[in-house]
Amino acid sequence: MSHVRYIDKTREYYRAEGYDRPYRWAHFDVIPFTPLARPLAECRVGLITSSEMAIRDEPPPVADDDPLRDPYSLPSDTPVTRLYSRKTAYDRFATTLDDVDAYLPLTRLRELAASGRIGSLAPRFQCVFSQYSQRKTLGVDAPRILEWLREDRVDVAVLTAV
Amino acid sequence: MGLVARHLEANGIPTVVFGCARDIVEHCGVPRFVFCDFPLGNPCGTPFDPLMQRDIVGLGLDLLATATAPTTLVAPYAWPEDTWKEKCFTKERPFLDEAATAKWLARKQAYRDVKAQGTA
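Structure tokens for the assembled complex are given below, as produced in the milestone run.
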């Protein structure tokens, strides 16, 4: 069976719920492309996710009722057993978010750094919310993440959409 | 997530996106995309299957090293059954339960309010 058409599904779903104006998903004709400048074995890898990570027994990094939901960073050496996802929008009927590495591959990237396939993992990973406002993502969230990656001297970035 | 990847790429940082919603990511347009045809939530492989996850993450790194133009790579794995594809995001199986929907709507309104005040 072919892949799920989420754009069509969400349009139908929300139309049935009484929302007449369909969400306009981001679309661009031109795709920026930066070639890799050096071997991966010499690269520091950054990790960015929309999985809304938090640390057990600590307050959530962003409150549920925060309208802005700015991006945030967490230390990459946090044991995965202490991390959990606060994401509510995923297919909870078909799968689970109980294994962090299925959507935030910290352990896998640590293994790849240990084996020399990548140079290193950045000291922090970033969490960015799937915002309703594309203007907020483009104008505020993405520039902030770029700034953090530059501070950490990240060469390449892995992004996981959850 | 596609928007963030595009911004990083445009500013000199090569990126690879792992995702399960092929149409949304490709509609946006990102430089390198590893598509995992799994239910939303597991873009790097099946939970508790480290070998598969290692392979899928490795495919993304290969793509970083080898792609010379925007590319989608389909991870060579299938979910054990595919009835979820028809059932997902329907009235019977909404992504957000009632409580999460209420929070989402409240946040959306709060963001509009903040924007109207000119602080966002």
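The two ends of chain B are 20 Å apart (CA to CA). Chain B has a mean pLDDT of 91. Further analysis is deferred to the final report.
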